[in-house]
Amino acid sequence: MPHSPPLKPRAQSTRKNYHHGHLREALIEAAVQLIEEQGVDKLSVREAAKRAGVSPGAPFRHFATRTALLTAVAEQAAEHLRTQVQGALRTVEKQPPLVRLAAIGHAYLGWASAHPTHFRVVSERPLIDYESSETLTRSNAAIREVMEQLLAEAFKDHMDLRSQGLAKIAARALVYGLARMSVDGHFPEWGEPQRATEQTMTDTLDFFIALLAIPTTR
């Protein structure tokens, strides 16, 4: 049986795709590749430059520190997530508020499953300069505001503001926790095969939304 030709290392793809004037994007791509291969602890600006095929000093015009580079990766993650959430909401814009709330959660889970490296970086606040990033703070605030609006619309007649706030935190914690369990491969420990992870996350979120929909008595 003839042997297949050896695969080229991923480093080649970054160098091949690098064009003058797009160094910032090439460095972010290189950083993501390096994190996937070696872990975030091994990432450096110089290693990203090497992977992108540029001189060691070239990246520092864009990223003076490793934290700055990781923050840019997190900003890319936030933009991708925002786009995915907006698209999901458009498909259910005429649906009841809890259906739209669920759509946000499902979009988040789908994004985290498709982009585990981005999820890890954006969710590890000590690695990034979150407070100084307008992109990150704006994207998170926008999602929180939509969740608040949907909960107010769904429960304004029978849930006070404090309870709505707790429901918002519970929804966020559930979705984040499911994404973290998926990325870290925890589901088999809880009796759910890894191959069934996406369905398990979907079913768990839908279970939570169904509980929210049950009328409460005060």
UniProtKB/TrEMBL annotation:
Q: Which UniProt keywords apply?
A: DNA-binding, Transcription, Transcription regulation
- Superkingdom in the source lineage: Bacteria
Query: Which PROSITE patterns does this entry report, sorted A to Z?
Result: HTH_TETR_2 (PS50977)
Q: Which Pfam families match?
A: TetR_C_33 (PF13305), TetR_N (PF00440)
Q: Which InterPro entries match?
A: Homeodomain-like_sf, HTH-type_TetR-like_transc_reg, HTH_TetR, MT1864/Rv1816-like_C, Tet_transcr_reg_TetR-rel_C_sf
Kindly list the GO molecular function terms attached to this UniProt entry.
DNA-binding transcription factor activity; transcription cis-regulatory region binding
The residues covered by the HTH tetR-type domain are 21-81
Q: Which residues bind DNA?
A: 44-63
Gene3D superfamilies listed in its UniProt record: Tetracycline Repressor, domain 2 (1.10.357.10)
What is this protein's name? TetR/AcrR family transcriptional regulator
